[in-house]
């Protein structure tokens, strides 16, 4: 099935608890359940919070916004439970929930941007984040520079640097970047690094241990895992999160209690789902690599990938999305391939229980030229289906491209 036999190892323990990760996932975020005599924390929807005494009302404005009841917009106990669970899972002091993963990226970037400042952005980050940089932040006179290596980060650095934003591996192109080296360099100049850690999840990627100050997760993907919620989470120390928290407060950011309850429910099974995504993605990627219609597979978990050694150092597993470059084919054959897939839904998301396919057509969203791709790039998300069924489905669809696919092995 694959020449990478190492099973994914989950982090042994959640640092702020004495528990193994699996135990923590079952027990975190349930503080308010006890009073409700229920297993799960109550779903508290509120636009208005009422206080028994004036002293408690006043106290609510002394505490940290988005961490305790104040006014409906700043959250209810359901949101605080999710944030506390996520912070503990990530070994962070604090967490803020935002309406989407992109809103979380926008809040972090927006909170650090300033006229005359410089934000250094890794080439290949999630396309809409790049659009935000180019079309919203740059016109506000915040300089945006794109880098693709630690060396180019050093070269582009100016005294006005106020934030470094990375995503590992980069969206679609799946390029690895040494997150620890980036963090070390930025920290030596007193500048925080924010990282889109959605791909690795807290289970496969310990962002804060690598020195990343602000770790951003589109909980829409694996943390929820069921393709029915959009939500973002940012973790970090209170100090690192202070400007983002203030930005969210000023912007009127709000997330629904229902979304938080669903994400908390999805999180309970993260420890079961991620090793399965890892094993299936590796099996399908290795099978695809051997097919004549596939030029190459961009997936750092494959030993043939240029980022493999770095991935092994900085990740403990690989989840389901990766990119394949098809051998050059006609538009009609490409369309026939996509349309023939039965088990892969045609959609732009990933991280749910189901497999997905998406033509990677985002070149115009990228600042620097991406790798040459004479063939077409396709992003696959490998869900929780049996990998053999997925390979059979891919084999039948690849036959539309010609050359005849080999037998499915897993
Ligand atoms: C790597 C990455 N980060 C962030 C996002 C944005 O998440 P959301 O859809 O919750 O805004 C996505 C969405 O696809 C993504 O792929």
TrEMBL record:
A GO biological-process term: transsulfuration
Top-level taxonomic group: Bacteria
Matching Gene3D superfamilies: Aspartate Aminotransferase, domain 1 (3.90.1150.10), Type I PLP-dependent aspartate aminotransferase-like (Major domain) (3.40.640.10)
Keywords per UniProt: Lyase, Pyridoxal phosphate
Reaction catalyzed: L,L-cystathionine + H2O = L-homocysteine + pyruvate + NH4(+)
Modified residues (N6-(pyridoxal phosphate)lysine): 221
EC number: 4.4.1.8
Family the UniProt entry places it in: Belongs to the trans-sulfuration enzymes family.
Name the UniProt record assigns to this protein: Cystathionine beta-lyase
